[in-house]
Amino acid sequence: MKKIISQRSIQSFLLVTSGYIGQVACSAFQKRKNGSIKRRD
Questions:
Q1: In Å, how far from its chain's centre is CA 30?
Q2: pLDDT at residue number 4
Q3: 8-28 per-position pLDDT tens digit
Q4: CA separation (Å) from 24 to 3, 10, 32?
Q5: Spatial separation of the C-alpha atoms in residues 31 and 37, rounded to whole Å
Q6: Is it the case that residue 40 has pLDDT exceeding 70?
Q7: How many domains does the chain have?
Q8: Helices marked H in the chain
Q9: Which value, to the nearest 10 degrees, does the dihedral of the CA atoms of residues 31, 33, 37, 40 take?
Q10: I need a labelling partner for 20 at 20 to 30 A (CA). Which of 1, 9, 12, 31 fits?
């Protein structure tokens, strides 16, 4: 039982971490995109 619980917590932790990293990368990419567009104009 302990192994299953730890595995689940690790899985959820990885899911949350990957999701957070993806969000940060997406926002950073969007900001960079907007900045380049503004510079061109």
A1: 13
A2: 72
A3: 899 999 999 999 999 999 999
A4: 31, 21, 12
A5: 10
A6: no
A7: 1
A8: 2-40
A9: 110
A10: 1
CA distance 4 to 24: 30
Place of tokens 């999701």: 19
Q: Which two tokens stand for residue 35?
A: 């900045």
Q: What is the pLDDT of residue 13?
A: 94
Identity at 17, one-letter amino acid code: T
Cα(41)–Cα(29) distance, integer angstroms: 19
24 token code pair: 């940060």
Q: Domain range holding 41?
A: 1-41
Distance CA 27, CA 1 (A): 39
